[in-house]
């Protein structure tokens, strides 16, 4: 196994093979980087027509931070940081009612915490890839056949590819998981929320924010908006609903769910018809008893989505990809390496998922009582020593599993 105590990312000379990775997101790109480093031929298949950009703000810390450090990428990732000194909770009149001081979060994480856009992290990972990694866009996988020699994979354009290993890094609605492990409904745990985010431009809204990240929470609904370094604004919206279906028209749904709110909500919603894309999805977790079948494995949200409620999905995705790549460096058969990866990572993912279920009522409260208590807790966290109150919110994410690999 590679010794990373000096934080260098030297190329290793392990067993060679060829791997197909379905998904060019954070998990897939991280895995591609490490597998190419380990001497494998890497082909990445991505359903989108190009690399995704934008997305939503993430807290990057813990295991993902450590993996980025081992890839010698931290200095590049820090260039994409979106500084968030604090998150100000407001009421519908725009008055401050409480705040989350991000310096306290950084204190809990020993300074190892960055705020950046999901798409910016993907871009940095993509930029770090060797030219030896091939990425084919606007494609997915139609069929997977396993035999004694490996895998035959049929792509959506009819192309047939042979591989020693196939990894589904294609997110919560994984195509690989559907094909090899069974339909999504068997593994998806709907958390009772739907969420959306988009990027827009509005000088009036930007002035009202005064450079702050602000958030309005009323029972069962949350709207947040924050300024970006490029002069644009990003918003996220979360609401509770028993309806699991993703709407055909996300913008119409957002207007219906949030259109009655005051503050600057109308100034945000008027842009959802104009933007190039809106991220909209269920808030859900994936719980699957096994992460591999033969020479097919899953990584990231495809096998262990922690959900928006738990956060750190990006960090867990990078950690899972790193652990999988390191286990595949062993001299054991591929199937045994995949079992070791699952045995090592699954308990950590399950902890984060439990954290998310436990903290949901505080992050996105369903009643005014929970909102009031949450705001009081945030005020107490600002007193000397009060940052300890944030540990339950961060949960098991304060420990990095990759340090033991």
Helical proportion?
25-40%
Q: Order of strands side by side in the largest beta sheet? A: 5-4-13-14-15-12-16
Number of DSSP E strands: 18
- Low-confidence parts: 1-13
Q: Briefly, what CATH class of the largest domain?
A: Alpha Beta
CATH superfamily of the largest domain: FAD/NAD(P)-binding domain
- Look at the helices and sheets and give the structural class: alpha/beta
Would you give an account of this structure?
The chain is an alpha/beta fold and 405 residues long. It folds into 2 domains: 18-82 and 112-188 and 284-361, FAD/NAD(P)-binding domain, CATH 3.50.50; 193-282, D-Amino Acid Oxidase, Chain A, domain 2. It contains 14 helices and 18 strands. The protein has helices at residues 26-37, 62-70, 74-78, 102-108, 118-128, 175-180, 203-209, 250-258, 265-269, 301-304, 313-327, 334-363, 368-380, 391-394; strands at residues 18-22, 41-45, 57-61, 86-90, 96-101, 113-117, 134-136, 141-147, 150-155, 160-163, 165-168, 188-200, 213-218, 221-227, 233-240, 279-286, 292-293, 296-298. A hairpin with a 4-residue loop joins β9 (150-155) and β10 (160-163). The N and C termini lie close together (9 Å). The model is unreliable at 1-13 (pLDDT under 50).
């Amino acid at each position: 196994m590679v010794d990373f105590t000096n934080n260098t990312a030297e190329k290793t000379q392990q067993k060679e093979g060829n791997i197909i990775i379905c998904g060019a997101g954070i998990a897939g790109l991280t895995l591609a980087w490490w597998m190419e480093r380990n001497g494998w031929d890497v082909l990445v298949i991505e359903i989108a027509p190009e690399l995704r950009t934008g997305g939503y703000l993430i807290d990057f810390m813990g295991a993902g931070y450590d993996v980025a450090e081992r890839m010698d990428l931290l200095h590049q990732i820090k260039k994409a940081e979106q500084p968030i000194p604090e998150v100000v909770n407001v009421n519908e009149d725009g008055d401050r009612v409480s705040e989350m001081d991000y310096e306290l979060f950084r204190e809990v994480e020993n300074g190892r915490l960055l705020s950046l856009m999901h798409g910016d992290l993907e871009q940095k990972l993509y930029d770090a890839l060797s030219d030896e990694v091939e990425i084919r866009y606007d494609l997915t996988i139609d069929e997977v056949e396993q035999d004694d020699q490996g895998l035959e994979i049929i792509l959506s354009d009819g192309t047939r590819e042979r591989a020693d290993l196939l990894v589904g890094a294609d997110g919560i609605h994984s195509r690989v998981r559907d094909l090899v492990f069974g339909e999504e409904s068997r593994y998806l745990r709907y958390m009772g929320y739907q969420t959306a985010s988009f990027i827009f431009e509005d000088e009036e809204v930007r002035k009202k924010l005064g450079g702050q990240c602000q958030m309005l929470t009323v029972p069962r609904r949350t709207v947040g908006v924050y300024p970006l370094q490029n002069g644009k604004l990003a918003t996220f919206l979360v609401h509770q609903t028993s309806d699991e279906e993703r709407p055909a028209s996300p913008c119409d749904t957002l207007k219906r769910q949030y259109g009655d709110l005051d503050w600057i909500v109308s100034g945000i919603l008027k842009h959802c018809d104009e933007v190039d894309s809106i991220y909209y999805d269920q808030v859900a977790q994936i719980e699957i008893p096994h992460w591999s079948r033969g020479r097919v494995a899953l990584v990231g949200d495809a096998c262990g989505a922690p959900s928006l409620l738990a956060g750190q999905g990006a960090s867990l995705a990078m950690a899972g990809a790193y652990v999988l790549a390191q286990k595949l460096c062993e001299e054991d058969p591929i199937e045994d390496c995949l079992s070791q990866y699952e045995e090592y990572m699954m308990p950590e993912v399950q902890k984060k998922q439990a954290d998310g279920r436990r903290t949901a009522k505080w992050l996105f409260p369903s009643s005014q009582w929970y909102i009031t208590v949450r705001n009081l807790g945030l005020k107490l966290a600002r007193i000397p020593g009060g940052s300890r109150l944030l540990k339950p919110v961060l949960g098991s994410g304060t420990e990095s599993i990759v340090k033991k690999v």
